[in-house]
């Protein structure tokens, strides 16, 4: 589903990603962790073409992200992305947030988009808030809407970049619960997170990054049981 082949990226002289390789199959739930500044956000932004890379390639469902002729907006519409800061459109109602891309990008009718949007809103437990505006919802609720909005596009995979790290502690679980549900239904997911409870519960693989490199790429049990690298051992001893 997602193939990352020898991806290297520089910001000027600074090499932010070095020879990154991994394969993510359909239904995989891969947690990406590692110290701040290790390149986690950059790597997942490369996957849906939000950041260019200079060497190597990434294929998403057979489409080359690096090829100059690839229709990146089309690719992005098929790979859902949820960021740390819930980026809902502040001037649109929750319903309109859920429908606008379905109508504009996928060409769905207003009614069809609305039906789908409300179904996903219900799924994240927020159907009673359809008429409200983002500012009227809590951070956890906004993040659940952001997930519902991504799901409305029928994504083939979902990318999450620290979706709970900007939330107050009491709101973290309501967002993680939605993600756990998705994982259990078989959604292919790449999740940058420090929530090791989530990793232990639903991940089947863990990628550990340090200084722009994928240092560990192994099963969850191997990662938590016996990480091979000293850097991962140190990271785990601080975080657990
Ligand atoms: P992480 O998500 O693991 O914290 P990032 O992918 O955000 O790490 O960043 C990796 C490195 O790249 C950091 O050293 C960061 O300072 C640097 N970086 C990120 N974005 C830019 C940019 N636009 N220009 C220059 N350096 C950047
Ligand atoms: Mg980051």
UniProtKB/TrEMBL annotation:
Protein's membrane topology: Peripheral membrane protein
Subcellular localization: Cell membrane
A GO term from the CC aspect: plasma membrane
TM helices/strands, residue ranges: none
Domain ABC transporter residues, every copy: 2-236
Coarse class of the protein's main subcellular location: membrane
Pfam families with a match to the protein in the record: ABC_tran
Keyword terms of this UniProt record: Amino-acid transport, ATP-binding, Cell membrane, Membrane, Nucleotide-binding, Transport
Family: Belongs to the ABC transporter superfamily.
Name of this chain's protein: Amino acid ABC transporter ATP-binding protein
């Amino acid at each position: 589903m997602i193939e990352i082949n020898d991806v290297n990226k520089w910001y000027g002289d600074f090499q932010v990603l070095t020879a990154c390789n991994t394969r993510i199959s359909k239904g995989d739930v891969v947690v990406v962790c590692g110290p701040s500044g290790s390149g986690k956000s950059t790597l997942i932004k490369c996957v849906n073409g939000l950041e260019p890379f200079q060497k190597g390639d990434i294929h998403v469902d057979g489409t080359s992200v690096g090829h100059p002729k690839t229709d990146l907006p089309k690719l992005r519409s098929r790979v859902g992305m949820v960021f740390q800061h819930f980026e809902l459109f502040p001037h649109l109602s929750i319903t309109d947030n859920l429908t606008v891309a379905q109508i504009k990008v996928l060409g769905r009718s207003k009614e069809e988009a609305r039906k789908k949007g409300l179904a996903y809103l219900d799924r994240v437990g927020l159907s009673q808030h359809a008429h409200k505006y983002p500012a009227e919802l809590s951070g956890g609720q906004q993040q659940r809407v952001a997930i519902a909005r991504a799901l409305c596009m029928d994504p083939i995979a979902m990318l999450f970049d620290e979706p709970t790290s900007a939330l107050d502690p009491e709101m973290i679980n309501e967002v993680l619960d939605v993600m756990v549900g998705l994982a259990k239904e078989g959604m292919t997911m790449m999740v940058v997170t420090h929530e090791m409870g989530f990793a232990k519960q639903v991940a089947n693989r863990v990628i550990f990054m340090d200084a722009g490199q994928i240092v560990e790429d192994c099963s969850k049990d191997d990662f938590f049981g016996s990480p091979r690298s000293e850097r991962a051992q140190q990271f785990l001893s601080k975080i657990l």
